[in-house]
Amino acid sequence: MANLKELKGRINSVKSTQKITKAKQMVAAAKLRKAQAAAEAARPYAERLASVMGSLATKVSGDSAPKLLRGTGSDKRHLLVVVNTDKGLCGGLNANIVKEAKKQARELTAAGKDVSFYLVGKKGRAPIKRDYPDAGKQGFDTSAVRHIGFDEATQIAEELVELYEAGQFDVAHLVYPVFKSALAQDPVTQQLIPVPSPNTAEASEAVVEYEPDEEAILEELLPRYVKTQLFGALLEREASEQGASMTAMDNATRNAGELIEKLTIVYNRTRQAAITTELIEIIAGAEAL
Amino acid sequence: MALHFELVTPAKLVRSEEVHMVVVPGSEGDFGVLEGHAPFMSTIKDGNVQVYKTAGAEPENIAVRGGFAEVGDAGLTVLAEHVEG
């Protein structure tokens, strides 16, 4: 049986761990509120852009459509853009994203396609590299950025569009976590490039005038749409990370509390046993006199 | 006589209000939008969006960068990549 001093030490160490997890939980809760507000604020832009895209894409079709909408004409080489977090301590979030990415990769490989990766965020690199050694080559590092914003999304989108124009891949999918609640963040896969034609076939009866013309506007709109998609994914990631972190830290705090309780009981028992032994010794001594 | 004007950036909805007229820096020239304007869409160049709250009032300038403007039944929507201030 462990002696009293050791037990006391363990109780104290668990207590300080609990303090840390509690603090991290509260920080995550505060950040989550902010991240959710940011995600909310970004929604109007994305919605409007999507509706404009929808009405334009139905008008411009065929060979005159920009490459970003039309595709390269083949679908052999696939790129998976995987959005992971930069920091750990957020439960199974990153593991789930990586699992989804690997599942997609396996399906594509089984269908005879080539798969490459573009990794955003630190935490996805190691586990994906384990199965796909080439995966670390392309990616974007967001770990140095404190508040992720539209600028980062722009940089990622520009790099992706450049790769696409250079013929590095035919189809790009985006894998990112969708924030549902603090308890649930599901990784989803979404086609990014070529931009999927929105199926909102709301053929407006009004004749819209375009300046310069449909093609030119669409040409400018598509990269912007890709940027918005990425921005949305980054915001979702941020909210998911904080949500998952909050839940994980809440669990950790509770577990630490349980452990402290158990250890305290053991500690008290041991102390009681020591006192009893001492008493018996004294009584035995007194009787012997 | 009011035009519904919305200015949206990726980060947030900057403006959503009823105004008299808005002058937008279109890529092929500035254009003013009043209520009941025909459906119209244009890309915009970097410059100032001028918002006239009422007829004859001093315009309020909002500097925008990159994006496009759409005029529809619901009014004028300016989707800008950046808005100063």
UniProtKB/TrEMBL annotation, chain A:
It is a peripheral membrane protein. It is found in: Cell membrane; Membrane. Its main location: membrane. Coiled coil: none annotated. CDD domains: F1-ATPase_gamma. Signal peptide: none annotated. The keyword Transport applies. Keywords: ATP synthesis, Cell membrane, CF(1), Hydrogen ion transport, Ion transport, Membrane, Transport. One of its GO terms (molecular function) is ATP binding. It comes from the Bacteria. InterPro entries: ATP_synth_F1_ATPase_gsu (IPR035968), ATP_synth_F1_gsu (IPR000131), ATP_synth_F1_gsu_CS (IPR023632). GO terms for cellular component: plasma membrane; proton-transporting ATP synthase complex. GO terms for biological process: proton motive force-driven plasma membrane ATP synthesis. Pfam families: ATP-synt (PF00231). Produces ATP from ADP in the presence of a proton gradient across the membrane. The gamma chain is believed to be important in regulating ATPase activity and the flow of protons through the CF(0) complex. Belongs to the ATPase gamma chain family. NCBIfam families: ATPsyn_F1gamma, PRK05621.1-4. This is ATP synthase gamma chain. It comes from Alteraurantiacibacter aquimixticola. The gene is atpG.
From TrEMBL, chain B:
Residues 3-82 form the ATP synthase F1 complex delta/epsilon subunit N-terminal domain. The keyword Cell membrane applies. Keywords: ATP synthesis, Cell membrane, CF(1), Hydrogen ion transport, Ion transport, Membrane, Transport. One of its GO terms (molecular function) is ATP binding. GO terms for cellular component: endomembrane system; plasma membrane; proton-transporting ATP synthase complex. CDD domains: F1-ATPase_delta. It is found in: Cell membrane; Endomembrane system. It holds the Pfam family ATP-synt_DE_N. It is a peripheral membrane protein. SUPFAM superfamilies: Epsilon subunit of F1F0-ATP synthase N-terminal domain. Belongs to the ATPase epsilon chain family. Produces ATP from ADP in the presence of a proton gradient across the membrane. F-type ATPases have 2 components, CF(1) - the catalytic core - and CF(0) - the membrane proton channel. CF(1) has five subunits: alpha(3), beta(3), gamma(1), delta(1), epsilon(1). CF(0) has three main subunits: a, b and c. PANTHER family: ATP SYNTHASE DELTA/EPSILON CHAIN (PTHR13822), ATP SYNTHASE EPSILON CHAIN, CHLOROPLASTIC (PTHR13822:SF10). This is ATP synthase epsilon chain. It comes from Alteraurantiacibacter aquimixticola. The gene is atpC.
